[in-house]
Amino acid sequence: MSDRTSPPADREPPNPHRSEPASDSAWSELERLFPGIVTRDPGELAAFGLDYTRVYAPNASALALPRTTEDVASILAFCNQRRLPVVPSGGRTGLAGGAVAANGELVLSLTRMRRMDPVDTVGNTVRVQAGAVTAAVHEHCEPHGLTWPVDFSSKGSSQVGGNIATNAGGVKVIRYGLTRQWVLGLQVVLADGRVLELGGALEKNNTGADLRQLFIGSEGTLGVITEATLKLSRRPGKLDVFLFAVNDLADVLRLFREVKQTPYLISAYEFFTLSCLQRLMRHRAVRAPFASPSPFYVLLELEGAPSTEALEPWLTSLFERQLVQDGTLAQHSSDAAALWELREGIGESLSATGLPHKNDIALPIAELESFCAEFEQVFSTRYPGLEICLFGHIGDGNLHINVMKPDAMPKEEFLRQAKDRDLDLFALVRAHRGSISAEHGIGLLKRNYLHFTRSKDEIALLHALKQAFDPHGILNPGKVLL
Ligand SMILES: Cc1cc2nc3c(=O)[nH]c(=O)nc-3n(C[C@H](O)[C@H](O)[C@H](O)COP(=O)(O)OP(=O)(O)OC[C@H]3O[C@@H](n4cnc5c(N)ncnc54)[C@H](O)[C@@H]3O)c2cc1C
């Protein structure tokens, strides 16, 4: 491999923003000042100190469960004055360790802040508190024929604040774009307790640099999001869901080119490999979709076809032209849900049936095929015999690469080797002008590798931003930036 440059992955240069460990008396004082809001119950600290990455040991000093923006502002002002480190926390479904408290921090959870205002059906907006659960926002908007089109399988637990702080992607990005596109306004509390109202419900606001966008995707390092005005979309009409069996990645992409020629909107174009399906079938009572197994599967959702029957000639032509080996078109909503389960159950099934080392990378679509060929070549020669489960939002150039721990290999050895493999992977990603994190963020998990995607000058500017917003480095210290 050329260009496999990196500092040793676990060396930690001095962090100018990192807070010092706080004394016990400071935490006791916080608890005393905010009764019923701050707790140091060990069970709560263990639960709230973790996110879905499951690779860090929780070690939080305290947990705050504020009810109002004023509570958040007072807690942050106190922490800033005492230099107490704070981890903003949402539904803790994050996959980058962003919400992990492993270094004696205060977890500031927005869980109690779930208010959802009435839907504005003229402006198609809704203002919610940051702790509103993503799926609850969908349910709140549904009676009005509207939705907030941020959608993925963790939506039953993830929160609006976490979605915005990670600029979440998901299964509908190909149709609607990232979370960023669906946020009109933010209320943010800065590290020193100042409250900013950014944007409100304005669709247009060209008054200089857009500060709101800085908080979207900043993973809780610049401020705590307390409320958001969400932009809503009309709920889609009839959706047609297909599953296809294809031979290889080249055919996944060939089919994608074909699908783009249809007059209908693509609302999802997802793929997964046979190894993902096999693990899903081990974990959940689902049946194989086709009589014979296939190396690759594609889930396609189309919007706008006049009727399901109208799509059948097109489906037949895909077989005739040998673009697909097998395929099915859901006839009922229950069939469609069963096909979606094949894709959406994968993340959970990999963790339930083994230990995956996860990566979430993005590539320009035009680079996908050459990237995958090189990836296969590098991994089969340098790390032979590993089970690799590939799936993801391939229509967005987003691959989830999961290397599974072999049963016979000790966990420590697997994790040690994972660091080496990551360096190879990220060098390849950089060579193909991709990103080391498509949608999960950087958090703790990828902070040593940020330089594979962001230049030295960019990283210096990110440090300058951090200094401007949070000069004492109390917010999510050690996350994203080293
Ligand atoms: C099964 C599964 C499937 C998933 N699928 C997808 C997917 O398809 N696409 C995708 O993008 N992600 C996916 N994720 C990852 C995750 O669900 C998203 O990143 C989600 O947006 C995180 O929301 P959360 O509320 O759980 O945030 P958390 O995990 O609690 O926090 C995430 C980050 O945001 C910060 N944060 C949280 N709340 C706030 C706040 N109010 N103010 C400031 N910072 C805050 C935290 O400090 C942390 O850095 C998946 C996760 C799982 C477990």
Number of strands: 17
Strand-residue proportion: 15-25%
Distance from first to last alpha carbon: 26 Å
Tell me which ligands are bound.
Answer: flavin-adenine dinucleotide
At CATH level 2, the architecture of the largest domain is 2-Layer Sandwich
Task: Kindly identify the CATH topology of the largest domain.
Answer: Uridine Diphospho-n-acetylenolpyruvylglucosamine Reductase, domain 3
User: What gross morphology would you assign?
Assistant: globular
How many domains is the backbone divided into? 4
Structure class: alpha+beta
Relative helix content: 25-40%
Count up the helices: 15
Task: Outline the biggest β-sheet.
Answer: 7 strands, antiparallel
* Radius of gyration of CA atoms, rounded to a whole number: 23 Å
Q: Report mean pLDDT, rounded to a whole number.
A: 93
Strand line-up across the major sheet:
14-11-13-12-16-17-15
User: What is the CATH level 1 assignment of the largest domain?
Assistant: Alpha Beta
Low-confidence stretches: 1-16
Organism: Pendulispora albinea
InterPro entries: FAD-bd_oxidored_4_C, FAD-bd_PCMH, FAD-bd_PCMH-like_sf, FAD-bd_PCMH_sub1, FAD-bd_PCMH_sub2, FAD-linked_Oxase-like_C, FAD-oxidored/transferase_4, Oxid_FAD_bind_N
Family: Belongs to the FAD-binding oxidoreductase/transferase type 4 family.
Protein name: FAD-binding oxidoreductase
